[in-house]
Structure formats: C-alpha cells, structure tokens
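Our platform keeps sequence and structure together, in a single record for each protein. Such a record has a labelled line for the sequence and another for the backbone structure tokens. This encoding replaces a full spatial description with a residue-level series of whole-number codes. Below, we set out a record of this kind in full and without editing:
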Amino acid sequence: MDTFFKLSERGSNSATEVRAGLTTFLAMAYIIVVNPSILSAAGIPTTAAVTATCIGAAIMTIAMGVFSNRPLACASGMGINSIVAYTLCGSMGYGWQTAMAVIMIEGIAILVLVLCGLREAIMDAIPVSLRHGISIGLGLFIAMIGLKDAGIIVANESTMVALGDVQSGAFIVGVASIVLSVVLYSMNVKGALLWGIIVAAIIGIPLGVTPIPTAVVAPLDFSTFGAPMQASASGAMGLIEAITTPTLLLFAFSLMMSDFFDTMGTAMAVAKQGEFLTDDGKVEDIRPILIVDSVAAAAGGFFGASSITTFVESSSGAADGGRSGLTSIVTGVFFLLAAFLSPVISCIPSAATCGALVFVGFLMMSDVVDIDWSDILEGFPTFMIIAGIPFTYSISNGIGLGFITYVIVAIVTGKVKQIRPLMWVAAAAFLLYFLLL
C-alpha cells in the first residue's frame, strides 16, 4: 500500500489518509440530502436520487483515487443539478431522462477534449498570476459556502448579503466549528478539522440543529440507472431527443464550459493544500485527474445523479493531511456506506462543516503575496477572478471574467504578444458562454 500510494514519499501514512478521507466525506455529506431534494423537482423519486448520488460519488471517487493517486473526491455538482431540475425539466418541460442525456453528452465532449490534450493545453496557457487568482478566489468561495451553510451570512434585499441571526442554532454551531478548527489547529491536534466537525455536530444536538436519526438503513433504488436510454416524457428515448434537439445541444455546450473550468479551479485549490501544485501554479500529473473527472460527468448522466464533478470540499481533506489517492478511496467507501446508511449520515448538519471550509479558505489566501499588483495586466484580471468567483457564486463565471479581462487589458496596454493562442480561444469561448446564459 505504501508503495502504490507513495505514502512515505509524500510524508503521509495510512492513519492520516483515513482521517483525511473521513474529513472530506463529512465536508461533502450534505450532497446526499441536497442533490436528491433538488432532483425531486425534476420528477426523480427521492430514494432513487439518493442511491444514484451515493453510488455515483462512491464509484467515481474511488476511481479518482486509483487512477490519479491524489486526494480528490467526486460527487454531483451543485448548480448543474439546479439547471436540470428547474430549467431543463422545469421551464423547458423536458423529461429528466432527456436532461440526464444532455449531462452525459457534455461529459463525453469534455472527455474528448481531454484525450485530445486540449483541456490540459488550455490550463498550461493560463498566466501564472491568473492561476494564483483562481486559488485565492476558490479560497474565498469555499469560505463563503461554509458561512452561508451555517447561516452566518444570509441574503438581504437591501445589502445583498448580511449577518445572520446570531441566536439561531445553526449560527451558533457554525461559529463553534470555526473556533474549534482554529483552536485545535493552533494546538497541532491531528485531525483538527475533522474533530471540529464532529464536536460541532454534537453541540448541535441540544440546539436542534443536528437531528437524531429515525432509522439506520435505507433501501436502494436503481431506477434512474441508464437514464439517457429510458423513455422520456415525450415518449422518445432521452438520448435520441437530446441529440436531435439543437437547443439541448447548446445547453450541453454551456454545461461543458462550466464543468471544464470548475474542475480546473478545484484541482488547483486541492493541489495547493495537498502540496502537488508547482511554484508556477501547475497541477502535477493533471491528465489522469481530468480524464476521471470527464468520465464522472458522463457517468453522472448515466446514473441519473446529474453531472458528477470534482468537489472543492476535497481541499478540507488535503488540509487535514491527505496526500494520496487513499484519501479518495476512503471517502468513496464512506459514500458507498452512505447509500445504505443515509438516515444516519444525513444527520451531520452543513453548519458543522463551516469551520473546516472557512479555515481552508484562510489557508488558500497565501497566494495573494505572489501577485504583482503594480502590473495592471497581472493584477486587474487576477482581481476580477478573485472577486468574480465568490461574488457570482460560480467558479467558471469568475474565471471567465478574468480571462476576458486579461485579453482586453493586454490589447489596450500593447502586450498582445503575451496572450497565448489558447487564451484567445478560452476568452472567446467564455464570451459565447456568457451570451448563451
């Protein structure tokens, strides 16, 4: 095991990897409840959505661990699942089988780009300053997710965002998780982030935030598996309807752009914490990561779980010491168990994971000193990424704003030669993506 996963070489051990895998799982466990609740709006039975979510995450996370040997975990991505439920199946009226076919198509398209080397080449064409900006923006985004899930920050019509109810149970649990994470980490306690989650969840029991499970085992429902090959609401096979409808193919392109760059940002964020990001901002051995992630997107459509993608919450496990694919395998095994034990796993409230996510955000801010803010070509587009990712609540939107801005600033400052050909392609693709939104 040590030889296969290179544990000693990376300064890790089995115990650390297992602990990190559990930390990652707990930080992601909310998807077991949230994804089915969203997909139910598309007409997918809740029990089937739970099975698809857990099994899909388990298979692809284990595959990520085996083939990439990096601490990255996969599950149904937030955002695209909402598009499936409320746009494709909601306002547009397509059956969920057709929507899942669209997801499978975009996953296959991304896989083709990876196998052709285009996805990796675009990542290599990104200026170093923008790579740092993606890492910083992801840190703020991760922290924002944690604060939002705990109700520490809430939406507000007057100010857009505001402080939540300080007397609410979720707020108290969220603050407790932050304090616990900082204190335990400062004391060099092994598994500080994991202990912060567990203790915060216990604190949430008397506050009514952490529910007591009413059951232990739940039945599995595989009825969504092979969704694109099933008959849709129109009576036609979902895959056939998706391929023969131009509007749906345009949707597939838009979703592909989101998946394409979300994973790029996530990989860089986890690589920063997992110590496999080079000094010039490149992710070591990125190709197998991209291949598995692309297959995962297509697999998500096939399973009926929406697009499965690499989760930015993986950085919590990396920050807790995870350095190899063993972390991912452990996370995947927990997802497999969760398919049967979802009533128990779903009791971990998202507020309890707030501290881990906020602390990871803090760790990722270190890249800010590597940016030359006096150079407008390096500084301003980077700022647009840093601000764009959390402010638009989208990794791909923030990256797109930065890419387009970089091209514009390079043109007006007479530094067009610094723009690599694939940056032109990426900026143009993002412009088209924004126009299609």
